[in-house]
Structure formats: structure tokens, C-alpha cells
Amino acid sequence: MAEGRQRVRLFVTGKVQGVFFRQALRVTAKRHGVTGWVRNLGDGRVEAVAEGGDADVGRVIEWCHAGPANARVTDVKITTEQYTGAYSGFEVLY
């Protein structure tokens, strides 16, 4: 049976800015073939959109819950969105 595709929007809370969280998320997403983007928000959270196969996006979500040890992730809010296939890579936005 073919794997489904999904798109999720993530809001990650913790000490996630200034600890290379965005770049590490980019590397993790690319390793799993997930596309999308990640950026810092003014309130200290990190926002990301991830698209790809169900299992691959699931691995990225798992990584976001742990993150780098120094990120001290406290919460990950996940919203499922309509899959668009609009991205060709995983970008770090500023």
C-alpha cells in the first residue's frame, strides 16, 4: 500500500532561538526527504511547515519534540493542513 502524504504546521516553544534549532531542523528534514520551511517568530517560538510522506513527516515531528539538547523544547503545537507539494527543499527563513 502506498504511503500517504501530509503537510503540518509546527509551533515549537522552548529555548529554540539562538541554539541552531532552525538549521538542525533543516538538516533533519532534508535527511528524511521532507520539504518546507522554518523561521523564528517574534515571541520566541519557531514556526515550521513540513510536507512529505506520512512516516517521514512523523520523524521530523518526533525530532521537533526532542530538538537539540540545548533547545529545551517545552511544547510543539501541530496543525494538519492540506498537502500542496509546493516546496522543492527545506528552507530556513529569516
Key words describing this protein structure:
94 residues; 26% helix; alpha+beta; 35% strand; five-stranded mixed beta sheet; single chain; Alpha-Beta Plaits; globular
Protein described:
This protein has 94 residues and is of the alpha+beta class. The chain has one domain (5-92): Alpha-Beta Plaits. The protein has two helices and five strands. The chain has helices at 21-31, 54-66, and strands at 5-13, 35-40, 46-53, 75-81, 90-92. The chain has a five-stranded mixed sheet, with helices on one face. The longest helix has 13 residues, at 54-66. It starts with a strand and ends with a strand. 31% of the residues are buried.
Summarize the structure.
The protein is built from two helices and five strands, in the order βαββαββ. It has 94 residues and is of the alpha+beta class.
